[in-house]
Amino acid sequence: MADSQQPLRTYLLPFLDYCEIEKGLANNTQRNYRQYLRVFFAWLKKTNRADLPPRELTAKHVWDYRLYLARSYKTPSGKYLTKKSQNFYLIALRALLRYLAEREIETLLESPFSISQ
């Protein structure tokens, strides 16, 4: 396993390129992943974890992020997310972590915990 010290946020653009080129995901899916992950990175910054490397992400971080999505985050129109929408945000995060794991970068998915709905 590679032990990257780069912050999680540095992987966003390579991940989106991967989604387009290797996975062939629809433009709408790519756009949604970008938006959902930007919310995650904004939350990391808001909680003073902007430079968190992948190997330091814990199940507790994910749980706290889930609580943020459920209780605090509002869409640009000022509405709270439905449970279904919250799950879309978590799916994007899980896809990013799988991308990192496929590149042998140590992540949460390599721990006994996993991101599940």
Describe the structure.
With 117 residues, this protein is mainly alpha-helical. It has one domain (8-110): DNA polymerase, domain 1 (Orthogonal Bundle), CATH 1.10.150. The protein is built from four helices and no strands. The chain is globular, with a radius of gyration of 14 Å.
What keyword list fits this structure?
54% helix; 117 residues; mainly alpha; DNA polymerase, domain 1
Summarize the structure.
With 117 residues, this protein is mainly alpha-helical. The protein is built from four helices and no strands.
In round numbers, the mean pLDDT is: 90
Any idea what the shape is?
A: globular
Q: Helical stretch count? A: 4
Q: How much is the radius of gyration in Å?
A: 14 Å
**Which stretches are poorly predicted, pLDDT < 50 over at least 5 residues?**
109-114
Helix proportion: 40-55%
Distance between the ends: 26 Å
Q: Helix and strand layout, with pairings?
A:
Elements: H1 12-21, H2 27-46, H3 59-71, H4 83-102
Helix pairs in contact: 1-2, 2-4
